[in-house]
Amino acid sequence: MSLWTQSIVSGLLSGGIYAMMSLGMSLSWGVLKIINLAHFSFILLSGYFTYQLAFSYGWDPFAAILVCVPVFALAGMALQWAFDKLRVSEFESLLLTFGLFIIFESIASTVWTADFRRMDTVQNPYQSQSVWLGDIALPVPQLAAFVVAVIVAFGTRYLMEKTDFGRAVRALSQDRDVARAFGIDPHRVAMRLAGLAAAFAAIAGVFIAMSRALWPGLAVEWFGIVFSVVILGGLGSTLGTLIAAVIIGFVGGVATVVGGPPMAPLAIFLVLIATLLFRPQGIMGRSSI
Amino acid sequence: MLEVESVRAGYGQAQALWDVSLRVGDGEIVTIIGPNGAGKSTLVNVIAGIHPAWGGRIVFDGREITALPPHRVCTAGVAVVPEGRQVFADMTVTDNLLIGGYHRAARARRKENYERVCEIFPRLAERANQLAGSLSGGEQQMLAIGRALMAEPRLLLLDEPSLGLAPVIVDTIFEILQRINAEGVSVLVVEQNVVEALELASRGYVLEQGRIVKEAAAADLLDDPDVRTAYLGV
Amino acid sequence: GGGGGSATTAAPDTTAGGPATTAGEDTTPATGAGDDEEAEAPSGDPIVIGSTLALTGPLAPTAAIHKVAGDLFVERLNASGGLLGRPVEWRVLDDESVADQAAALYERLITEDGVDLIMGPYGTGAIAAAIQVAERYGYVYPQHTGSLTYAFGYECHFPSWPTGRYPNITNPELVFDALESTGNPPETIAFVINQFPGSMFVAYGNPDTGDPNDAKGAKQIAEERGYEVVLDVQYPLDISDWGPIAAQVRDADPDFVYLGALGVDGPNLIAALDALNYQPAGMFMQWPAPGPVLGAGESAEGVLSVTAFESHPPFTDDPVYAEVADAFREAATEAGIPYPEMETQASASWAAWETLVQGVEGAGSLDHQEICDYLRNNPVKTIFGEYTYGTESNNYYGDLSYVKQVQDGDWWVVYPEEKAAPDRTIQYSPDN
Amino acid sequence: MADLRFEDLVKHFGGVHALDGVSGHVDDGEILGLVGPNGSGKSTLINVLSGHYEADSGRVVLDGEDITDRPAHRIIEMGLARTYQIPRPFSTMTALENVSVPLMFGAEPKSPGEAREAAREWLEFVGLEAYADEPITSLNLHQLKYLELARALAARPRILFLDEVLSGLNPAEVNESIEMVRRIHDSGITIVIVEHLVRVVTSLATRIMVLDRGKVIADGDPGEVMRLPEVVTAYLGKRAQSA
Amino acid sequence: MRQRPWLGPAVTLVVAVALWFYPNLVDAAGWPIFYLLFAYTVFFWVTQASSWNLFTGFSGYFSFGQGAFYGVGVYALGVLVVKRGWPLLPTFVVGGLLASVLGLFIGLVVFRLRRLRGEIFALMTLAVAFVLGAVARISPTIDGGQGIPLSSVPTPDALGTHPQMIFRLGLITAVLAVVVVQVVQNSRLGWGLFSIRDDEDVAETLGVPTFRFKMIALGLTSFLAGLSGAVHALQVSYVTIEEVFNIRVPLMVILMSILGGTRHWMGPVLGALVVHTMSDRLNRAGLEAVSDIIVGALLILMIVAIKEGLYLRMRERPLVTAIGAAVGVAAGFVLGPLDSAVTHLAYTLLGAVLGAMVPVGRRRRPQSGAPATQTIEEVVGG
Ligand SMILES: Nc1ncnc2c1ncn2[C@@H]1O[C@H](COP(=O)(O)OP(=O)(O)OP(=O)(O)O)[C@@H](O)[C@H]1O
Ligand SMILES: Nc1ncnc2c1ncn2[C@@H]1O[C@H](COP(=O)(O)OP(=O)(O)OP(=O)(O)O)[C@@H](O)[C@H]1O
Ligand SMILES: [Mg+2]
Ligand SMILES: [Mg+2]
Question: Cis before residue B153, ω within 30 degrees of 0?
Fold first, then answer.
């Protein structure tokens, strides 16, 4: 029994990391209409920053958030500024950021080599720590990622649905000219949102670095899961993203126990296909129009 | 209030406006009439800053706004009802209206304005949570007008506000224009209901092929034989 | 002076300083090819050796080590007189960890660039793809890490990784022998296997080759030895969530975990087990990235793996290789490799280069048939010792693997006794 | 020979009853004016009849054949074409290409080459020949409406639904357009026209059907219908009544 | 030009017949055999990109399914020929057909649902590739994690040496793909797909049988992708799940098609040629550290400077393109090592691409017209 509960719990918790990686992507794609592959690079680089801060200066990995968030928020804003200037469309953004992705990967491998980088247990004591709920272990990095993802998802949802900032970005994404004619400064608003999305990537990177080894090609492995989460959750829907991530984590955890790890991707993607067939707009997507 | 001097504009290599000049006085209602494709919408968009001017000057309230981006034109006090509705299709009716009152000056009285719009267009209140894109054509037009009213402009630009509206609503629209004008808002309206528009306005311009060809008091235009044959079809 | 030749190498300047001077003082070239004269500066047109490596993509972390090793080797080779008196240039291209890319690149190196010699790439797929090209053009094909021993039948293919023809048998036998040497072998064992062709082969064998010896694997051998297999899971290469696997391991509570691991699978599983507050009595890892395992600290103590060379005695008893190991450490550190010790991967690379060089020197020409014949008929001296390519067994030489273990925060060879580091013995006790 | 009947059509969007049991018919050769306040369900009716939407319930019969569940491309093939109130051109094609698409399909499909030739003439018919090879972005709203018209005509329909094609024209242009609609009608096409310009409807329509909140509230002779008190209060308002 | 839909396919076939003898020329002239392989790889990408474009470029349904279709082809060959001992040549076609069965099955399920468009469709197709990968991993009859070595596949003598054979097989598939796309582009199917891309509902109400057209297009696309995958298996020589069912093929194909332009059959062909030539030469230059940065930067530059795709841009600006190409040729002689035809090709293409980026050109303004006073009969009759 504890095998089951433990596996399900760790599946659910890994949903927290998936969510954290996907939230910014969802915002950027759903609202800014930028399919930002550089988002993956931000996650990876933020992971490397965390590693480097711990390695060179003995920083606690959690403290790395203080550096990574502002750095990548600025980077995200700068990118958005460029996208705005170039008037990049959705598809163009995919290719353009693919170019950036290649460049960032190559930079990472120049700076940190292609070899694995992983904080040891002294630099990152959290990798082997857990919070215990009875006999269920909640590993600290995953738990932290999960908690932060929940907060971020609800916070962002509030921001997008209930505040003027949220309405402004949505309006902008639908009809830029008219939105501008109602006093919305497109650059400022979009850059702030892009900064936010990149900040989420930075946080995700910190948690990734805390729980696994880094290498420059790692980011490609995330494409499948993150795109699945983003689309299953409904583009731009933060709550949907969270739910989708948790579902995927849960399905993966259960499938690993039932049929072995190779079943996990099969189960995840079958559930994904089934869900889309029955709810094609995604979990939280709008149902009308 | 608004001075447009020798404005030129166009699309790509194609010029659509040639040295257009016009004026809207404080508290005035001015109408522009003209045939299809004359450049009326282009002119409205140029004034609102949505479309760039190639040359000329636009002065609003003594301040040059020619090259200002649209959001700055908006904060200066100009709101627009664009041609063909252009509502935010994937946002609810309420959110569309709130965007109307987004800029700082309008935000303070947003609640009252919202209620006022709902009172003018009860249909919008009924559909408050519907996505704007799924509204009927006329309902979207009401929303576009309501949204502009939310912005509390000092100059309201309307591009064919009656488009697709049932006669009974068209009446309402013209009443509203009169009412907000009485509250001190200047109005520049492009309208194909030429008779009603000229009855409402104090002055009118005739725009043909990108050029102003006539400017007169509205009543005079109504009686002008050229205008009558060209635009009233009588 | 020996400096002149280095201008023609493809080695980055950054590594040129240190090792070159060391090599200058040493009269014996690290190749072990045995020419005794004072190193002459190589002259003439460079001999171009072409190869690809997975400089990007999923195999890049390990390939990076082969890059450092190759660069270092070529640099020292040039410093010690080059090959056939000519300077050597290593042209290494990026195959992006993709097999068809590797095949195309070897085709290009051979037919368009007209390289004189080739060196094998890293990664099963690439090795298998390149071997066909090599065979097509009759090129001698030294190669360092191909573990699918049954798949490589080309007669001029010279694998330097000393696992023997049947790593699927020798490897597990070695590990289990080591465990049994403690007098207290495990009773229950868990198999956790990466679904990578090589690790699958070692763990389960491959029944499709027609050779009954290929059909065996670690699991069957464990069962034959009477261990009870309490868990048998396979996981995909790009697994991201180790929690459920760790839970299964904890649940099965085996005396020993046989992890058919690649790269950082090992430390990932250790961290996941740690989070569950569980530590198995013993664990074996197939081909781990050595550095990250050590990074797992306390929990990694006692972890076993296999190796063919470690930079400690008795392996460094030979001063030539002691010096090579030092030079490698320096070069790898310089290149930013986090765990710069010379161990299995780097030494396999080294041995492949030694094979190639001795083949050429032995044949005295660049004629591939002659080189091939020489290597098939003469032993070569490599970092692993004297090596005879076994013409009966797909050119695989015998098994020269040893068991190493993490003790006191570092890797030490612990079994068999004659190869164990001084005062090191295998530590394993399933009872506590 | 074009005889369209529909019975008890119902279409709900969430809580909105866009069509709430609408029955009616379009007789061969008539010009039916379809009017009603905004949001009364006119466009929805056209969407349902043309197969763009599936009705929740009800039946559509064309020439005795039940076409309720036919896919839209079969319906247009049977001679029923429509325009969109808010123009929906194919945005990456030129004006000419837009019009050539329906010519390639339907009952007498043409090859792409032939379709282009024929499309040019339809563009001429609506006065857009100068824009034939222009991208759609250089057409303004009213030009797009005419393009809608050309596209629908190019399908050679027997029944043509016009959803506010003439709105936004000034009175003089309206007069010309009325003539154009007449010419279309004279060529033997039955027309259903939705328009808020009362003058257009009254001068063209041979019969008028009035919708309000998804229900038919009046149906009959134009002169009489437009004087019914419920039509006046729901739709026309005071001024229009006096006009 | 538009009046001659047969012209494109005819030219393609003539070029193909000429190219058929290219291996003999290489042989006779003693050129590097690599040229054959280089050409094959271009053919491979031309096939994949054209096939992707046929469905996605034309209909606008963004598909990541290319990886799945390609993978089915690769594995069909691996499993059927290596494990089951099927003969080689018919298995190519079987690979295509199996991929096409998969494509049609996806279509049957997905196109029934009106709302499965846009990114949802993209995700569905992405998921299919992952599901196939997982199935292959679980099932030992397909792969089971061991991979399939293809070294033992006997190749038919009729097609010559391995490089000659792979060249000719690649040529056949590429020609097939290009001709199919050419024919589709100028047919009602093509126009139907274009209108689906712009507005599917409107297309349907204007008479386009959207479901049938999408099925046909997806069926063709998946067949071509599977066929080409089966051929490519011979080049991969060791098939593993990770290398086959990943996003490399779809990403490359998307990249090439969009760079070249998705609106014309020539776009993906040009995109494949340019991208593969450039990356091959950059790789050869051996600048590991910077070559990726150059690739990335070039990509960004091209996307930013040429939004409509290389082909349309070049056609619009033939002069600057030609000048650019000429400069490229000259630069090849001045800068480049004169050793390789491929290097020269790369310089030429680079010059042409840079030339096409130069912004020049102007547009006319049309005269407005009033509605004509014709009758419908006049229009129809005329
Ligand atoms: N986006 C555009 N690109 C190119 N040309 C355009 C564009 N929009 C409008 N035009 C052209 O500019 C001219 C003026 O158009 P505009 O929409 O301003 O006229 P209008 O007076 O508003 O006409 P209407 O009464 O039909 O609304 C027309 O010839 C039109 O074709
Ligand atoms: N997709 C939809 N989702 C939700 N509501 C819808 C949808 N389409 C139409 N409606 C609603 O159905 C009602 C009828 O709309 P319809 O477009 O048929 O009106 P109409 O009579 O054409 O009005 P108008 O004269 O303004 O064009 C409207 O209230 C509209 O808001
Ligand atoms: Mg206009
Ligand atoms: Mg309507």
Answer: no
